[in-house]
Amino acid sequence: MQKNRLEAFSDGVLAIVITVMLLEMKVPSGSSLEGLRPVLPLFLSYVLSFLYVGIYWNNHHHMMHAASTVNGVVLWANLHLLFWLSLLPFVTGWMGENHFAAVPTALYGIVLLCSAVAYILLAYALVAASGADSRLRRALGRDLKGRWSMALYAIGIPLSFAAQWLAQLLYLAVALIWMIPDRRIERVIRDEHH
Amino acid sequence: MQKNRLEAFSDGVLAIVITVMLLEMKVPSGSSLEGLRPVLPLFLSYVLSFLYVGIYWNNHHHMMHAASTVNGVVLWANLHLLFWLSLLPFVTGWMGENHFAAVPTALYGIVLLCSAVAYILLAYALVAASGADSRLRRALGRDLKGRWSMALYAIGIPLSFAAQWLAQLLYLAVALIWMIPDRRIERVIRDEHH
Amino acid sequence: MQKNRLEAFSDGVLAIVITVMLLEMKVPSGSSLEGLRPVLPLFLSYVLSFLYVGIYWNNHHHMMHAASTVNGVVLWANLHLLFWLSLLPFVTGWMGENHFAAVPTALYGIVLLCSAVAYILLAYALVAASGADSRLRRALGRDLKGRWSMALYAIGIPLSFAAQWLAQLLYLAVALIWMIPDRRIERVIRDEHH
Amino acid sequence: MQKNRLEAFSDGVLAIVITVMLLEMKVPSGSSLEGLRPVLPLFLSYVLSFLYVGIYWNNHHHMMHAASTVNGVVLWANLHLLFWLSLLPFVTGWMGENHFAAVPTALYGIVLLCSAVAYILLAYALVAASGADSRLRRALGRDLKGRWSMALYAIGIPLSFAAQWLAQLLYLAVALIWMIPDRRIERVIRDEHH
User: Fold this and answer.
1) CB pairs A-B closer than 8 Å
2) CA distance D68 to chain A (A)
């Protein structure tokens, strides 16, 4: 019961984040194809952020599905994650409007890094609530993918000032790694059913 | 369980898309009836897009109802559909502000075409997850309506440059065809109940 | 099942309508109390529209609770109602920014009237889906309140041009009448439980 | 059943309030770190309001979980609470844009005070609906935390004109007090389970 409402609230926030991001894409004044050109970097940064919100929604979905109970700490850990994800429209817009300039690219990486940390804190809170022997605990195992992506964000942030496009590539690479859904959790859930 | 959350998230995104579209309709400065005139094309493009979001919501509703299971591929196919539908407010606003000019009308058709393709990919992903012998498989049958509408969009896009109003009529015609809910699925569901 | 998703989607749209309306209330530039004065009419029109969205949500809630089944016609009747309610932020903002001038006040009344007609069409669609002998049919009975409010809106629209404040009072009066929840439906539901 | 829909609607409104607040944070024009400076007070006021929406969502969650039934009065008491919380984006934006000036800080306090009063009225309405002997009645007990926070808001509002930063500290202090979830309700629910 409680879990359902936490999921519904998170879905609501993520659904709005994904949609409101497009409000930064101001309708161009002319009707020519040329008029779309200034919108292009905003569109590309929107695509990247859409991927990230999709990834978080998918993995959040899987993780909550494996969790058995939630408590007050989980509720706040979840709100903490939503806080960082709610900053995505702002940094996406800033990065897009400045054609992926160094400082906005670094700030984008910081928001991604903080979101990743918040996601891991939420995982810890859920494991603590479910018990060390729980299905979720076994499902998460040694969180290699989470550690790798945090390391790549940490490299991407200073890299923005040296080679901003390489930082963008790093962010995209991490997104593509994560688009493969969390097989670990899917496997454990499947195993339980047999 | 999993299906419910996918439906809830899609509903959230579609509900926001439908409402945020109206934010493009800026409140006119004067209080006279004349002041409403520049808003009229935006209003008309809003009506068309509202119909489309309604159609997608209705058919999504029916298709998910007939589906038995979802997996990681379905989640991403669904996000892919939501991505294209989330672009509707932008192209609706651009088309409305430029009084249905050629380029925005063509771009609007492209977003409609990509949404239709994404919907069919979602249908394939659902059938693959449910099995070739599933209720959904039989319900979808030979998807004539889907093929026709894609063909009409594909005609509408180049037509925008020759006769933009004919392209608009095509888009409206496809919408009206789809407003008749998917009887195929309704029939199969009813048959199962008897 | 189907009913749940229709309710969830309607809740989503109404929740966004209620919140997005406030985006019309632009943050004033100064920090003095004087700076709030131009926002006051927008705030008052927001209060009136908030009441109306609350009334529609409450009565929609009650009516759907009494309904037993939904079909394709009900889905479209519901979308039709949501369409008119989604226009509320625009007319609210226009009316507020022009200090309740005649034309915006009349347009506001037209949106209220269309919403009321759409609500009654939804009620008819639900009764048709549930059967003439259904609980909902008996619950709605002779819809005096609905008829009265439509009559008052129909008076308010031309009245806007003669005495705009009287029209506002009429709109407010109808809102206050409706804030009393639909006892008819509550009674029938209670009777069924005994 | 009815309770679920009230929760879902409230979640929707709160999710939008939390996200729409960020739309006040306009993307700065330059790409330098300096460009972020005017956004900083808006960001800080956003953090404070995010905490408050999180607190209200958490406590609303707990209180509704303990409630057994809802009626028409509860629905309106809930809408009344959502009305005040829906004003948060406006006062947050006004306070942030004016660097926490006196009048916006006082108005922010007024909205917090009205929200707190509305929350207590909702609690009374729920207790009245559930009966004086209900689980919720015992769970709420003597609402010391609610009374204290209202007293602190009432001090903060006039204090804004003398020492605006002290008023901000008061608002933050109340938020931190509330971030500790309502142990009273959690305890009673746990006790019932044993």
Assistant:
1) 76
2) 14
